[in-house]
Amino acid sequence: MIAEPLVRARHLKSLLTAVDALACAPAVRAHVGAAVLGATEGASGIDWLPLEHDLAFTGAIYQVLPAAEADAFFRAHTSASFEGPLLRTMVDTAVRLFGLDPGSWARWVPKGWSMIFRGTGEWSVGAIRPGEARLGLAALPDEAIAHAHWLRSVARSLDALCDLARCTGGMELAAVDLAARRADFVLRWAAGARRAG
Predict the structure, then answer these.
(1) What's the count of helices (H) and strands (E) in the chain, helices before strands?
(2) For residues 60 and 190, what is the distance between their CA atoms, to the nearest angstrom?
(3) What whole-number distance in Å separates Cα of residue 44 and Cα of residue 65?
(4) Which of 46, 61, 141, 171 is most open to solvent, judged by the fewest CB atoms within 10 Å of its CB?
(5) Residue 76: CB partners within 8 Å, gap ≥ 6?
(6) How far apart are CA 128 and CA 195, in angstroms?
(7) How far apart are CA 21 and CA 134, in angstroms?
(8) What is the sign, positive or negative, of the torsion defined by CA atoms of 44, 47, 53, 59?
């Protein structure tokens, strides 16, 4: 039996908080819809909600914001999430173990993902070499892989690994195989280059 695709309510609540800081928040909220907003606001942070709620938020953000601004929104939201209650402990542990190496951070993507999503794909980490790490997300639910913007939002969210490592770079959505329900990603960064901050 295939598990129902779910997302942690805390993730949606933090998305909603970030949306509410935007000037266009009323328009985004209108696109998300009352049912999803009500379920998000009424849930406990540790609850699990249907993945469709995350898809509704993602679609609304890309419908209302220009694409580049929506991309920046997802990157900034994930960067901020590294400081939040859902991922802070994992981040602190990884920094102690690996320092600020993006390649090492790529290995933690499956662990972080499992804290936010259930039944929503399985990450594998492939080749990691200086300046590049290859990752795959398989067993994706049909509604996620068919969504117009969701995989793009995943890539933009994972750009934040470079923010965390204080280096320039980002995640590329390299290939999508609808029949295999798989997406391949490549994280690239400027090896040895560090951003201030």
Answers:
(1) 11, 7
(2) 33
(3) 28
(4) 46
(5) 18, 160
(6) 21
(7) 34
(8) positive
* 101 and 108 Cβ atoms separated by less than 8 Å: no
Pairing of strands 182-189, 132-138: antiparallel
Strands 6-8 vs 182-189: parallel, antiparallel or unpaired:
unpaired
Domain 6-189 classification at class level = alpha beta
Backbone φ and ψ for 13, nearest 5 degrees, come out as -65, -40
Q: pLDDT for 128-183, tens place per residue? A: 999 999 999 999 999 999 999 999 999 999 999 898 888 899 999 999 999 999 99
Q: pLDDT at position 46, please?
A: 95
Structure pTM? 0.89
